[in-house]
Each structure stands twice: as structure tokens, then as C-alpha cells.
Amino acid sequence: MEQILNEIKVVFTDTAINEVLKSIKLQNPVPYTMHFNQNEDFFIQIQSEIFVPQLPIHHDIRSSTPDKNYLRLISQVVEQICVFIPELLEGLTYFFDSAEILKPCFYKLYKIEDALYLYLIRIDLNPRLLEVSVKQGGSNDITASYYTKRLYLESELIPLEKIITENPTLPRFLIDQIISQTWIGETGRGYMVHGIWMDTDLSKFFSKAFIPQGKKIYPYYPLFCKYKTICGFVPIIGSQGRKLLLPLFHKAKLFFKPHIPKIQEVLKEQKFSENLPEFKEIASTVPSEWKKQLQNFYVISYLNQFEQKEYQITYETSAP
Length: 320
Hints:
Blueprint: E1 2-4, E2 7-9, H1 15-22, E3 32-36, E4 42-52, H2 68-84, E5 93-95, E6 105-112, E7 115-124, E8 133-136, E9 145-164, E10 172-175, E11 183-187, E12 194-197, H3 199-209, E13 223-226, E14 229-233, H4 238-256, H5 260-269, H6 277-283, H7 292-295, E15 297-303, E16 309-315
Helix pairs in contact: 1-2
């Protein structure tokens, strides 16, 4: 996958892996739980261990084609996922990202009214050594092989302007960028200069406006800023989660679009707060029925076996 300006480009896909995905047979739902670690990275916890073999660390980013051994190893992981948690990849198509080869990508397109959305999953196969059972150590060139019940992933709904299909198997997705600029400025001196961006504050603004006042669901931001647009974070895996949340994300994008210039101007000068007059004004116009779905998400914090803070997300079909 290449991301150039407002474009996500599929540069390589694999027929054999896609055949594995097509063979998925859904039966009874497989239990899993949804979590964030202390760094706010999202993962799902499943009941069975998945074995991740040693994978190459390096790849020439100029080459859009992975080697056959890499594809064979990725296929082994995909086959296990299709057995142990088939809902995760059901109905999706695989593609290769030459910039991050330890994050295999999977996608599906959706259309609601006249709007197009790209559902994108990126599974992070980097070994987190404190959390996995290592079978064989790694080196500077290959990762450790390991067993894990945790699958770290990104699960995003991205609004599209259009799809270019000069090659139908390698489409290009033009992102509907409704946010003009998220860069604010710089801070620090010399080697300690850091850029200041408003992405996090925008994510808080969008999400807080669509949940009941006072409800806490940190670190889950269901509506977040990425690719200079409003994206949706889908923690519930499978088509169930997408069908549940896509209509809401579509409404949110249409709702916020005319307010974006005003929101950007405010957040250039001030950090986000629920007490901002502009936030109160905009949030008060969100229809109450739109908040009902996100009202059913709950987040609790806990300490894991290493006494590190983590978070678990739950979703209830009806809120108390």
C-alpha cells in the first residue's frame, strides 16, 4: 500500500491468500475481548494461541512485490486467523504494504447513499516480547517467532472521494479530505524542535460531540482525525461491527463537514475542552438518537500481569 497525499494505492495483492479468505466459513461466533494497552494500542484477545513465524524485517520500499517466502509465512498466519477468529477477515481482500511489511493489510468497500467508504484492517505482527511466548529469538534481519492470544490491529472506516480502477485488482482510493490542515506550528529549539498537530484535539472534539455528556470512553475515540479527514474506529470485528457503526460515521461526516473551518480555527488557538463555547454550541445540535449507539460502549481500566495499565472495551446491546 502506498499513501501519496490523498491517495491509498494497492500495489500488490496475492491470489493464494485471497483464496484462503474466500474459504472462510462462519459458524458460531468466536468469543473475543477488545482492549487497549498502556500506549493506547488496540488489540483483541482471543481464546486460542496463534503462531507467528519468523518474518523478515527489511524490504526495499521501492519494490512493490514481496518475495515468495514472505507470502508463504503471511499465509500461515492468515490461515490460523481464519480458523481461530474467522469473523476478523471474513469478506476482506489482502494487500501488501511495502512500507510496513510486518502489518499485512485487508480491505472492503462500502457504499451508503452516494458516499464510498474504505474499511481497512492492518494487523501488527511485530512481537511484543513481554506479551508473547517466544519460540525462537530474532536478529537484526528477522523477527522472533512467537505464540500469542493478542492480535494488535487498526480497524478503520475511511471516507473516499472516488476509486480509480485502471487495474481492477490494484485499485487506488482517493480519500475525501474535508480537513484542510492539521499542522499548527513547532515548539522547542535546535535538535529538540517538535511539530504541533491538532489531530488528537480534533479526534476528541468529534468523538465527545457524539457521546452523552459526561460519559468516559478514553482511550477509544470512535471518530478520529487521520488522512486529513474524519475516520471511524470499529472495535467490534466482523461485518456486524461495520454494519452497526458505518451509518453513524456517515452521519457524523456530513454533520461536521460545514463546521470544519470553525473547529480548525478554534483548535489552532486552544486545546480541546468540553467547556469550549464552540464545542458546546456544535455538540448541542447533534440529534440525541445519534448518540445511542456510542452510549452502549463502556471502558474499564485494569492492571495486567506486569502491573501495566490497560483498558477493556465492552459493548452492550442496550445501555442501562
